[in-house]
Amino acid sequence: FLLHFARKLGLQVTLIEAAPRILGRVAPPQTAALVRALHLAHGVTLLEGRGISHITGTERADGVALSDGTHLPADLVIMGIGVLPETALAATAGLALDNGIATDGQGRTSDPAIWAAGDCASIPHRGGRLRLESVGGAIDMAECVADNMLGAGRDHLPKAWFWSDQFDAKLQIAGLSTGHDQVVTRPGPEGHGDHAGSVWCFRQDRLIAVDALNDARAYMIGKRLIEAGRSPDPALIPTIPDLKALLS
What we know:
The protein is of the alpha+beta class. The protein is built from five helices and 13 strands. The chain is flat and about 60 Å long.
């Protein structure tokens, strides 16, 4: 939203990403390419793989010094640095911590009498630990943990979905692309130029994530397939006339 309004006001905007590319932690390169093209088309200068050394200025910020020695003059500096889970109470209670409060697949902490759910808790997932920072994820996990506290004994299967408004485009993500070994892309609906399309991620021939830019239909169908545990033939994705046929 901030970038959108700044550009609408005619301000010059430079986006700095210290990682090799944007969206490196949450999406494959194909999704990043769609978003990058969108920002460039709106006049944003995008610098990837360049960290910030320090912010210059005395009474107020007047520029940004990059790790490669470049200095960018600036009237306003906005930093997106993320958040960390609040684990102080859990640490005081002696609970195991690992990317938040570590739980088993059912939400039980290292103390079998204590349970945890939501953005502060991590669960085992694909050989690592997963902590979702989303409204839907927190609700799903809380419902599962509540059931387990009453004796259900079922593992939490995260139903990850996210969205982000980028200028006049909407990015929607269903599933988690971490660990994918195959990516298939599909053009988006007409009317959005190059700023539409979907990216389908598979792992061992199983559909694990769909990223859609200005393509709500691809997002909804992909989400339904993932939640149903169904995986279409990747070869069908780019050319099938109607994605809805994948549900039949």
